[in-house]
Amino acid sequence: MRQKSFCFFFFRKRRSLLPLVALDGCALHGAPSFPIAGAYFPAWMLCALLGVAVAVGLRAAFLMAGLDALLSFRLFTYVALGTLAALALWALAFGP
Amino acid sequence: MKRVPMGGNRRIGIVIAVACIGAAVLAGLHVAHQDSAYPSTDSATIDAELVHVASIVGGRLVTLPVHENQHVHQGDLLYRIDPEPYALTVRQAEANLALATAELNNQRRLLAVRTAQAATARDQVTRAQANRDLADRTVTRLEPLAGQSFIPWQQYDQARVTRNNAEISLAQAHQQSAAADIAIGDLASATAAQAASQAALDRARYELRQTIVTAPADGFVTSLRVKAGEVLAPSQVLFTLIADDAWYAVANLREITLPAVHPGDCATVYSMIDRRTPLQGRVESIGWGVLSADSAGLARSLPLVPRQMDWVHVAQRFPVRVRVRAADPTLLRMGATATVEIRHGPACP
């Protein structure tokens, strides 16, 4: 139930951001291990990719919105935001 | 004028940075705790029990009704070895048993004869005793008559000789009777020979039965590569039967997560044959030992201690055996990659 609703959210809102997980319908539903070209990639790798994507995406979005100027320690802030996104994906989709 | 907003921005920036980093650290700690409290692995393997099908007798394979990958039920005929040599052995053993039985009957008759002979010998003792008593009484009677010369001394002497002869006859009769009693013997030897023949016959019959090999459990025939006509040595494995009455997932979990795993815990198992279908499992047991490279060595030799200065040690993993509940049989193939999640996942509400 929880995973289904999360997938729904995931694909409705961020389809353009994450084409990787849209390999085969909602790939998150099922084992936390993803077959790509005959090899299984662990779920945490997907989370890490999402974290990097979120950090880069937020940087671009904040620059456009002018929020970037407010920040200091930008590297640490964006890394922390990316880490938060990655951990949130793990906790929502793969965690207990 | 410029400094004040910059300072405000800077303060806001620091607050945001500290909040983000703090939240990330807290989230990281939470996730790390969850990960160790609810262990999972993606390097598990689907496992089942095996029977290496073999017959304890050898011979030519004459019937092989099963084929590779076929499902069989317990008790189904798997193959048959040429029974003729074993049937012949049974016949030989039957003949040996008949011989031993005949010998036993023979010995029984001889025993009856020897028993009768012993009875005769005892009767001879009685007769010799009676004769000796008569001779004794005769001597006693004649002794005063001979002393007073009423009879010739010669007659008295003859009576004494007769008594001595009767004594000797009695002793001989005693000896013969004892010898005859000993000679009766018993049937132990013939009975034991018969029992040995019976055991040989039973064994031959058992071996004849072993020429028919039936399935010891429900399962799948695998690695069968020969046809009828093959000659098999005794105990030679012809193929492997994968028992399908119980399927397992063997999840290698790191030792630091083992305190969170208990026999009876629910587990979600995904067979990567279809990674979308969660299978319900239950932790059955945790492995009690793995071979460690640090403790490997010949048992009778000295300990093998490598010289090293490792600062980082990789956690040892132990196989956790998870019994998979009855599921779609196409998902369960021995050796398939599986993902196991202990106490979470869709199969554990």
TrEMBL record, chain A:
Annotated membrane topology: Multi-pass membrane protein
Location(s), subcellular: Membrane
GO CC, alphabetical: membrane
Entry keyword set: Cell membrane, Lipoprotein, Membrane, Palmitate, Signal, Transmembrane, Transmembrane helix
Signal peptide, first to last residue: none
Cell membrane among keywords: yes
TM annotation in the entry: 43-63, 75-93
Any Pfam family the entry gives: Ytca
Family: Belongs to the YtcA family.
Protein name per the record: Uncharacterized protein YtcA
Species of origin: Gluconacetobacter sacchari
TrEMBL record, chain B:
Species of provenance: Gluconacetobacter sacchari
Official protein name in the record: Multidrug transporter subunit MdtN
Gene field: mdtN
Residue ranges occupied by any p-hydroxybenzoic acid efflux pump subunit AaeA-like beta-barrel domain in the UniProt entry: 247-342
Transmembrane segments: 12-32
Organism lineage string: Bacteria, Pseudomonadati, Pseudomonadota, Alphaproteobacteria, Acetobacterales
Keywords attached to this entry: Membrane, Transmembrane, Transmembrane helix
Pfam families for the chain: Beta-barrel_AAEA (PF25963), BSH_RND (PF25917)
Domain of life assignment: Bacteria
Signal peptide per UniProt: none
NCBIfam families, A to Z: PRK10476.1
Limits of the Multidrug resistance protein MdtA-like barrel-sandwich hybrid domain: 50-237
